[in-house]
Amino acid sequence: MKNVKILFFISAVLFLAGDILAVIYSYQYCRRKSESQEYTAQRDLDTKEQSELISGAEKRTELPQQSYTVVIDPGHQDCSFPDEEEPVGPGSAERKHKYSKGDAGVVTGTTEASLCLDVAFLLKKELENRGYTAILTRTDNYTLMSSKERADVVTKNGGDVYIRIHGNYDDKSEKTAGAECIVPTPENAYIGYMYKDCLELGQLILNSYCVETGLVNRGCLQRDNLVGSNWSPVPVALIELGYLSNEEEDSWMSGQEHQEKMARGIAEGIEKYFAKEGES
């Protein structure tokens, strides 16, 4: 009985430490954003002063070089898992299942976890080629990771944005097709203060993704029941790549060339987001 109490105490301490880390990192994110805005305001003032001194000269004021870190989460896993639960957000008494397996293509049989990982690897390479640091929450299909544990990777690695990759499925209609993004609402109890950033990130990614792939743009949805998003300390967007329940879309997404387009589209949206952050 004494050992059980000790184990319970250790678990409680570790859980509390995770909450504290998430709060600290959220504070750091807000501080970094505020400092960026202050720098931009000063930059604009300096540029105006130079304009007054150098009439008619061509001028260009650049932001300082900044390395951004993107954390990519390929959804789900293909291994068996225990029936365990975790809080839906920091400090929440409400709990949801820790793990989920995902769906599979109706034609290819490709699991959602496998598709997401393939695209995530290509996205990582694409972002690194563009000069960003890219980190995957998982690199195989057989490692158990809960939604909170995936979000913890963002905190531990100083991520600037968190991109969650999933495949969609409609068990009511095989004709449903297209891509969509999911972001929190302004009323989200855990990350509602990042709503505008999340929405902008989601919209830029989805628009670029659909232009690159030619898939139907189904728009950005707003939901607050995604545990992996609720634990994020930075702007987060979940992209649904397409419908595994649609025969044509399932087959299309399985092609290497098409997956490269998917990765390029997501990367282009992320780059546009960082460009806007530098201007704000």
Summarize the helices and strands and which ones pair or pack:
Elements lengths: L1 H52 L15 E6 L10 E3 L7 E3 L14 H18 L3 E4 L10 H11 L3 E8 L10 E5 L11 H19 L3 E6 L4 H4 L5 E8 L3 H7 L2 H24 L1
Parallel strand pairs: 1-4, 1-5, 5-8, 6-7
Antiparallel strand pairs: 2-3, 6-8
Order of helices and strands: HEEEHEHEEHEHEHH
DSSP E strands, number: 8
Provide the β-strand percentage band.
15-25%
State the low-pLDDT regions, or none: 35-65
Q: Helix share of residues?
A: 40-55%
Q: What does the main sheet amount to?
A: 6 strands, mixed
Rg, Cα atoms, Å: 21 Å
Query: Helical region count?
Result: 7
Roughly what is the average pLDDT, rounded to an integer?
85
Q: How would you write the strand order of the largest sheet?
A: 4-1-5-8-6-7
Oligomer: single chain
> Which structural class do the helices and strands define?
alpha/beta
Overall body shape? globular
How far from one another are the termini? 57 Å
Explained architecture:
With 280 residues, this protein is α/β, with parallel strands linked by helices. It is built from 7 helices and 8 strands; from the N terminus they run H-E-E-E-H-E-H-E-E-H-E-H-E-H-H. Helix 4 runs antiparallel to helix 7. The model is unreliable at 35-65 (pLDDT under 50). The longest helix has 52 residues, at 2-53. The N and C termini lie far apart (57 Å). The strands form 2 sheets. The protein has a 6-stranded mixed beta sheet, with helices on both faces. The protein has a two-stranded antiparallel sheet with strand order 2-3. It has helices at residues 2-53, 112-129, 147-157, 195-213, 227-230, 247-253, 256-279; strands at 69-74, 85-87, 95-97, 133-136, 161-168, 179-183, 217-222, 236-243.
